[in-house]
Amino acid sequence: MNTNTDLHSIRHDLAKRSFWNIGYFVAGLIFWIYVIVIEIYFPLEVAKIYWLVGTFFIFPIAVLISRIIGADPFSKGNILGELVGYTHMSVITLSFPIIILAMIYFPEAMILIMAIAYCLDFYVMTWAFGSPLFGIHAAVRVVVVSIIWFTIPDWREIAIPAVVALAYLTTLVLIPILRGRWLDIYAV
Fold first, then answer.
1. SS3 state at 138
2. pTM of the model
3. Which residues, including other chains, have CB under 8 Å from residue 110's CB and lie 6 or more apart?
4. Distance between CA 117 and CA 136 in Å, rounded?
5. Residue pLDDT, tens place only, 128-146
6. Which 3-state string (H, E, C) describes 81-107?
7. How many of the other CB atoms lie within 10 Å of CB of 105?
């Protein structure tokens, strides 16, 4: 059994079916724009509740967008697709208590925690999809939001979600280009 060929075939199937999870990235962009709008119109004590509630809409929006564009949001039967899905759900589940704690005791940090926690699984996507795009997104995102948090505290509530939204937008522009090149290079 040639494991490299098997991995290549599984990655190829995943790229074709999932469109590299583009629906989830659209949902992420929508969520972070929502975070900005909530920040602008509501005080922190109200905004933190809307932010938390908003997180529950990311998944259904991702599935809806995926279905609209013809992507398979679950890639059932593809072991890498299932790994990406399980990893994402694990990250959300494991980070949820921290987000709740932040909401109750340190709401100012809620945006920073979500900005960092909600991209930890991107490193698994980098391996599963065979593209560094997702790991680069996560690394740049974490570094930039951390710098903003520590250096410009007066602007962090707007700057952090704006940077994360920009990271999603950039990734959304790059996914079709890089995925297309990847499919051309690694055609089965």
1. helix
2. 0.94
3. 48, 51, 52, 99, 102, 103
4. 15
5. 999 999 999 999 999 999 9
6. HHHHHHHHHHHHHHHHHHHHHHHHHCH
7. 8
